[in-house]
Amino acid sequence: LAQKYDPQKEAELRTWIESVTGKQIGPDFQKGLKDGVILCELMNKLQPNSVRKINRSAQNWHQLENLSNFIKAMASYGMNPVDLFEANDLFESGNLTQVQVSLLALAGMAKTKGLQSGVDIGVKYSEKQQRNFDEAKMKAGQCVIGLQMGTNKCASQSGMTAYGTRRHLYDPKNQILPPMDHSTISLQMGTNKCASQVGMTAPGTRRHIYDAKMGTEKCDNSSMSLQMGSNQGANQSGQVFGLGRQIYDPKYCPQGTQGEVANAAGDQSGDPPGYHYYCEEE
């Protein structure tokens, strides 16, 4: 904070205070303003009777009271609270930078209120410029979108086809005729390499699988080539869904007709020949 203190601004403030009050501060700027007498007289010049009592005693609490009255007078003069300093900042040299900032803001407020002095110091405060618009003007402004909300660089959807409208693909490199209407889309928007769904069967339609290498003929447009995959000729012929199925093993099930099976079974059990089945001659 001490490094931010500006000696040039101190000289300007010294000249301005002395020209307004007609009092000499002395060689030491801090000691000359420490008692608060000159500051209270300065405030009475800017705003008469703003400090009604000025203590000229050398006692510390009287000097602190003068500084407190001066700070209150600055607040009533219209100074911003952030521009004010505390009494100890000047009395104990705690923060002379803040004291300098406050006095510069006071000079600017005095200039804003029209004080004429021989020293041009301080910056004028911005004045509030309130405008009153009628109700029709306020409603018209609600339809305006400012650039703070973004911009589309004057782009629009002029000439765009409705959603779902047929679009024609063309490529100028392949000597395809230029578009005849706005429903044409160029390759800059992408292409499917002239592929289409022409000849495709409806979802769920039966399809026949054939292999051109095996000499299988293509039956109709519902056939499907091996490029689409194959089940190696397997089908569901003879399959029953939900019915009982008998499981057998060829090792344990004899081969032949029913009579041969019965004769073989009789030879092993020792039954009489009368019970044998005879095979029908060829």
UniProtKB/TrEMBL annotation:
Residues 7-111 form the Calponin-homology (CH) domain. PROSITE patterns: CALPONIN_1 (PS01052), CALPONIN_2 (PS51122), CH (PS50021). One of its GO terms (molecular function) is calmodulin binding. Pfam families: Calponin, CH. Gene3D superfamilies: Calponin-like domain. InterPro entries: Calponin-like (IPR050606), Calponin/LIMCH1 (IPR001997), Calponin_repeat (IPR000557), CH_dom (IPR001715), CH_dom_sf (IPR036872), SM22_calponin (IPR003096). Keywords: Acetylation, Actin-binding, Calmodulin-binding, Phosphoprotein, Repeat. SMART domains: CH. CDD domains: CH_CNN2. It comes from the Eukaryota. One of its GO terms (cellular component) is actin cytoskeleton. GO terms for biological process: actin filament organization; actomyosin structure organization. Coiled coil: none annotated. Thin filament-associated protein that is implicated in the regulation and modulation of smooth muscle contraction. It is capable of binding to actin, calmodulin and tropomyosin. The interaction of calponin with actin inhibits the actomyosin Mg-ATPase activity. Belongs to the calponin family. This is Calponin. It comes from Toxostoma redivivum (California thrasher). The lineage of its organism: Eukaryota, Metazoa, Chordata, Craniata, Vertebrata.
